[in-house]
Design a protein that fits this description.
heterodimer, A: mainly alpha, 4 strands, B: alpha+beta, Ribosomal Protein S8, Chain: A, domain 1, 4-stranded antiparallel beta sheet, 11 strands
């Protein structure tokens, strides 16, 4: 039997995590709670798969926490480090597909047409719908690594405004837009560009 | 028994093939004299608005565009050109370069975080990402007129270049062909420099609203470079007729 076809194991901290996620979504989570939540989601694909539909921004929180955890793992024993990588590999496969499902856009050579500028409520609402299908497929891990799903992009542009990002001239870059929900709130675009000389 | 049905079907088909009797649309010719844009640019704007049988004559002399099409299509073109052929605006763009990292240990106590020095930005970034430090590498006010290309060196090791372009919306400005590059001194004698890409893109910045453009190697990166743009229109355009 192929282990890769198994969904994530249920987590003992599921209820606590669910409560923290709800608190975070309501802006009621303190810094300690944020840190605890991020650490847990970095290592628990089961809780992550339930949390991201509620608050898609947790994906970035988890991934950053995952990077921190990796530094710690690098100093651990070989066996520990290997286990960590395996867990992370599973989590990253999940993340890659979730990102694709939530994706605002993976730039493919840059088309001049606009793409999603998603306000956070819409982002969340769309994410719930998209992830229902996306996560189901992700959890059984039936796709070969590297072959992302075709994104179901929900475009919610404000009135006549042009999208925050129009073209992407960096091949292979992935683009995430977090449109503002209030006039004074900054628009955020995150570009993951493996070729960037940072 | 099938024969009458087939005949009826063929008659109906033949009937449906008759050309519809419709009124021929009135064709009009109008000459548009452009004040601030070139007729070549105007052609790009109006072409999608015209019908198949339209004809357009671009005349550099006199800066005109002559459109021959149905009255409705010409009217559409007229309205669009009136809204588009505006004097270029002068834009002041504050650009701040931040380096985000998950290593907050290097922060100097008592010194505000770089992201917190821009209203609303620190809070927004912390909500979305888990970086613990946003170090301010540089900030500059880039001034230019729509149509101009500007280039700026930030933080000694980064270069930013883009064309300030009208977004077609008075509330936005487009930074077209934006190139964000790393610059290094070339090895050996002389002052030659090497440039390598961080990002190439085109973005639309809302006037008066911060725009955060973050670049990381991947979603899990422990570090990222962040450009924060804040644009404002300084004065109505000086009216550089025909220059773009």
């Amino acid at each position: 039997m192929n282990d890769a076809l198994q969904p994530p194991r249920p987590c003992a901290e599921r209820e606590t995590t669910s409560r923290l996620v709800a608190l975070r979504a309501a802006d009621g989570l303190d810094a300690a709670g944020e840190a605890h939540l991020a650490r847990h989601l970095a290592s628990c694909p089961a809780c992550l798969s339930e949390a991201v539909p509620v608050d898609p921004t947790l994906l970035f929180t988890r991934l950053s926490a995952s990077a921190e955890a990796e530094d710690v793992a690098a100093r651990a024993t070989l066996r520990g480090a290997r286990l960590h990588r395996e867990e992370r590999s599973e989590a990253d496969r999940l993340a890659v597909d979730v990102l694709a499902a939530l994706r605002v856009r993976a730039a493919e050579g840059g088309r001049p047409d606009g793409f999603a500028a998603l306000s956070r409520p819409w982002f969340k609402a769309a994410a719930v719908v998209l992830l229902a299908a996306g996560l189901a497929a992700v959890l059984v891990l039936t796709r070969p690594a590297g072959e992302g799903p075709q994104p179901a992009v929900t475009v919610v542009h404000s009135a006549a405004a042009r999208p925050p990002i129009e073209e992407m001239g960096s091949p292979g870059a992935r683009v995430y837009e977090f449109a503002s929900t209030k006039p004074e709130e900054p628009t955020v675009v995150f570009v993951a560009n493996p070729d960037a000389d940072l | 028994m099938l024969k009458p049905v087939l005949i009826a079907f063929l008659l109906a088909l033949a009937g449906s093939g008759r050309p519809p009797v419709a009124a021929v649309p009135e064709v009009v010719v109008r000459v548009f004299t452009l004040k601030h844009r070139s007729p070549e640019e105007a052609l790009v704007v109006v072409r999608p608005l015209l019908t198949e049988g339209a004809s357009v004559v671009v005349q550099a002399t006199g800066n005109t565009l002559t459109v021959r099409d149905s009255a409705a299509a010409v009217e559409r073109a007229a309205k669009t050109l009136a809204a588009w052929d505006l004097p270029p605006r002068r834009i002041d763009l504050t650009v701040t370069l931040l380096r985000a990292s998950t290593d907050g240990r290097s922060r100097t106590p008592g010194v505000p975080d770089g992201a917190d020095q821009i209203p609303g930005v620190g809070e927004r970034l912390r909500k979305l990402f888990r970086f613990t430090e946003y170090a301010r590498l540089d900030a500059a006010v880039v001034q230019g007129v729509e149509g101009q290309t500007v280039a700026y060196v930030l933080g000694g090791g980064y270069r930013l270049e883009f064309q300030i372009d009208p977004a077609g919306d008075p509330q936005q400005v487009r930074l077209k062909g934006l190139r964000f590059e790393r610059i290094r001194r070339a090895p050996g004698p002389g002052v030659a420099e090497l440039r390598s890409d961080i990002l190439r893109t085109t973005i639309n910045v809302a006037i008066g609203q911060p725009y955060i453009l973050a670049v990381g190697k991947d979603e899990a990166a422990a570090g990222a470079l962040i450009l924060v743009f804040n644009g404002k229109v300084v004065v109505p355009g000086p009216g550089l007729g025909g220059q773009n």
